[in-house]
Amino acid sequence: MKTFSYESPVDVQDAIATLASDPDSSLLGGGTNLVDLMKLGVAQPSSIIDISKLPLDAIDVDDDGSLRVGAGVSNSDLAVHPVVRSRYPVLSRAVLSGASGQLRNMATVGGNLFQRTRCGYFMDSSKPCNKRDPGSGCPAIEGDHRNLAILGASDHCVATHPSDMAVALTALDAVVEIVGPSGAHKLPISELYRLPGHDPDLDTNIGHDEIVTGISIPALPEQAVSVYRKVRDRASYAFALASVAAVLRVEDGQVTEARIALGGVAHKPWRAITAEGELLGRSAKHEAFREAIDLELRAAMPLRDNGFKVPLVRNLVTETLTELAHRSVQL
Question: Above 90 in pLDDT, residue 234?
């Protein structure tokens, strides 16, 4: 592990100033991803800026029913919060499916959003990887890519985003609160992440000297139901082969709102915009759900060994939406 300095800022502005002064610095929340990458030699920051002690660990319910979650909130506290469990079950289930209890106790909401891919080539510093070393190549395209992207990939990278929480927040139309040298601003989570394109080393659209301080989650519409479902190779904690976060509202048998976000299939949480548009106004039936996700999957570009993800996603989304439609009738 490379030698590094350790900084403990007194407030957010101090942390931003420290980040801005060192382009090779890294923020530390719970450290559950960063420390692993440092041990492997994948991440080699010159300085660590520990923001775990900053007052960013509150969960507040606003008067309009929306929720604000501080970036320093632990994953465990988020998952078991009574408002999250009752109003946003899709989020609670996503967080609980993401890691063991010990890791959830340490990991923070902000850190979870910025965890790096678990592509084997990225994690192995002895192998070429465009995400880790731009221009070195992507051996995963011809190599081991069974668990990698089928949507939105490029000739430069086929890695997938690992966060379950981010998939749920994408379906919830969450907004990320960011503070930088020029002040505070907000960014829809759908605009936070990037597809790989020609620059797969860039995971997000925020600057190195900016800090996420919290996340705002709008209240769900009346009668909307939500769920998170994840398919993985083993029942123990593992990254998704595919997952879906879905929000559905049905009135008089017709879909009046549908939000679908996919995990385990792209470089970022994949919002199934095509499928959502196809479902509006249609009968909330199994056939309609299957036809809608089939339209979305026309954009899929599976590789040699991950084509199984196409029918996997089709069946996962169809059955999940069918389950939600049945549940909405019982409300």
Answer: no
